[in-house]
Amino acid sequence: MLNLGSLNPQQRLAVETLQGPVLILAGAGTGKTRVITYRIAHMVERGISREHILGVTFTNKAAREMQERVSKLIPKPQKSNDGEKPSRPTICTFHSLCVRILRKHIEKLGYKRNFVIYDESEQLSAIKKILSHISVRGEKIDPGVILARLSKIKNGSDGFGAPKDSESAVARHIQPRYESALRACNAVDFDDLLLLVLRLFTEHPEALDACRAKYRYVMVDEYQDTNAAQFNIVHALTREHRNLCVVGDDDQSIYGWRGAEISNLLDMEKHFPEVKVIKLEQNYRSTNTILNAANAVIKHNVRRRGKQLWSQNGHGTKISLHTFKDDEEEARTIVELIEYARMAKRIPWSAQAILFRTNIQSRPLETALRQGQVRYHLIGGQSFFDRREIRDFLAYLKIFVNPNDDVSLLRIANVPARGLSDVTMERLLSASHERKCSVFAVMKNPAVTATFQAQARNSIESFVQFVERTRDPLESFDAQHPVLLSSWADRFLDEIRYFNELRRAEKTPEAAESRIRNIKELLVTLDGQPSSLSPHDRLQSFLEEITLDTEREEEKENAGDAVTLITMHSCKGLEFPHVYIVGMEEGLLPHSRSKEEGTLDEERRLFYVALTRAMQTLTISHCANRKKYGQSMPCHPSSFLHDLPKELVEHADELAKKPVSAESGRDQFAAMRAALS
DNA sequence: AATTGCTAAGTTTTT
DNA sequence: CTTAGCAATT
Fold first, then answer.
1. A607 in contact with nucleic chain B (CB within 7 A)
2. What sign does the CA torsion over A23, A28, A31, A36 have?
3. pTM of the model
4. Residue at the smallest CA–C1' distance to nucleotide C1
């Protein structure tokens, strides 16, 4: 039995309002996840069937957390005696919801069911290929920019009037080719996942009806971050039954630049006039000093619903504001403060976080942390899955699931070298353009291969045979003796002598062994899929999981005692007892580009997000000079600092004045440690 | 095929 | 200053 008594009145109202449209305005730290999970559990308790409940999030991390917490709240699903699978509420990201829907219905749209999902780097190589075929006018075109534009065009939010609409024009020109290229590969990109579902809904109303019948109660988390396509999907699902509960905070909308429409949340009444709006304003995270500062900052934004956070946590200590000579002094002193807190107040590293606007700002901080022998953990940066050997290996796997995936095929066709030279691949590629089919299909076509020299033809034929031979065992489905994907993969890696290739190509044996280790690491996880599926489907779902879930390394994140270094964007949803916000300078926050783009309000929300991460203490700093592109540039305090009420702030300049010699960082800590232990 | 050297640019990031 | 991407050279 759910204990609703532990909720405050607003939370309880939100949990108990199950029918019709609801908008839960959940301020930072107001127990949002608790409300969502309780609401789902409450639905189950009130007899709403689990399979009719859908909870949508943006990140896999959020989905996982919600899934876990809901499972703890609702009774274990009993196995029904008619052999039906016990059902659970569907809690997943927008993209994985769309994959589910498309795996059922995509054949109606002319794709094959084993479509692959292209991630950003694969989209980029597809675009590069098209650009190289297009008349090269003097100016160089950045594929990344074109991709961004393309995505905006597809999502119907390309301004096409901005200063550089030549880029937009190129993107528009490229679009049909890009789309047919992906279609020929039986591939879809992240945008397609959403857009194809919308197309399915309009062109095949019976599929929409099926989805509506299944998902009768829909909840959307972080609603302020939904883009146009996501809004349309939600709207299509719910406009009949109207059981839509959206949860979000307009003041924490910081992803406008990637298509999020804050108006989806602000104009909820336009689409659902009967919506019940519930505000969660009691905060369980921060002191009132921090909340009042945050309230005062966000008050300056115009288009917002309005909200006052408060808490029962007392006032706490004042916000401490530091001015530093330059970014190096800033970094050194922040490290000093961290160590002081740890030594004198027994505050562990893991309770402290440094927040910054841009990733480059982490550099001086990392240097200082290392000098001070402080363990830290940098969030963001290069992913495991960006490594070359991992990408190669995944490309192989994708080819075995779907040989028509040209991007993957071209990636690995001659890795390791097997006589498929650039020239040969170029010719195959243009043949595939002519015949409007995949490269693999062309390779199998005798009419095409006949035009090649005997040597090239042999290489092509043996490659085709290799692919078909290797994917063969994937089709055999024996539930008693399932194929072990890891040993299957071992075998083909052996056959192509990939590890030897790595050893040969790497400069040092250590580098090669490290890459080999990376692949072995991945091999181990290959058999994690339910064995009720055929090997092919297990592999497909493995690849899907990887493409849709980039943050698999998070176990590492929580490991041990370490200071967190994180951007203000990626800190949303997190909290830390002690927060240091660095680089509060005009041009960094608000970022200089935001002035040109007229997104000052979003920058202010970003500051608001950063402020509301802090539970107990907040330290803010800015510098008089900052190294930019190698040169020291003068800078001014951020205009946002004026919005902090004076009575909440303590200027700590005096403390920073004590001289710190550059090379003595380590000695100083040693002295401090000695004095305190 | 691979390595070197030059040029240009340099927010935020998830799926 | 750093780095990524590309062109030119061996």
1. no
2. positive
3. 0.85
4. A630
